[in-house]
Amino acid sequence: MDILASLRGADHRLTQRMAAWDSAWARRLLPPVEEAVEHTKLWWAAAGVMAAGGGRRGRKAAAAGITAMALAELLSNGVVKQLIERRRPPKEWIPHSDVQDRPDSSSFPSGHTAAAVAFTAAIAPTWPWAGAACCVPTVMVAVERVHSGAHYPTDVAAGAAIGLAAAALLRAMPRLLLHGLR
Questions:
Q1: 129 to each of 22, 52, 121, 133, 138, how far by Cα in Å?
Q2: What is the DSSP string of 3-64?
Q3: In which element (H, E) is residue 102 found?
Q4: Cα 27 from Cα 24, distance rounded (Å)
Q5: Which residues touch 91 (CB under 8 Å, ≥6 apart)?
Q6: Per-residue pLDDT tens for 51-75?
């Protein structure tokens, strides 16, 4: 029980520290990141660019990214958020105006992070350069979710784990289906 209390305390302190991070870089860059990933717009746009300009490999990567992203959103928003009710960080901890735009749903896990990680992890094996390029906005999404007061760091970590699991499941699916047919 002491381990959970320590983890919760560290989670709360890190949330407050990240939300209070006041730099010109954060004020200029993080709000547009939040807007770009709302309703997965950034990932759909990236998939469109990959599919249109990347030939067969780009189409394959885009399809994997979109599929993994959908699976991660289903798992995070449709299953886990329904099972685990966690309140968002208190508004008093967030010293900037972003706190007004927070969703009302459960804080755990971060669906935005799950989608971003799933998309990036799913395209990386097919097109490593595109996966590397997507790592930057993926990390920025994770930072933004805590900075805006929408999530605790553990929500983001759980979202990342769900995203990785969705990408791994998608990658293993052909083998699982072939094994099931035997």
A1: 32, 16, 12, 6, 14
A2: HHHHHHHHHHHHHHHHHT---HHHHHHHHHHHHHHGGGHHHHHHHHHHHHHSHHHHHHHHHH
A3: none
A4: 5
A5: 99, 149
A6: 999 999 999 999 999 999 999 999 9
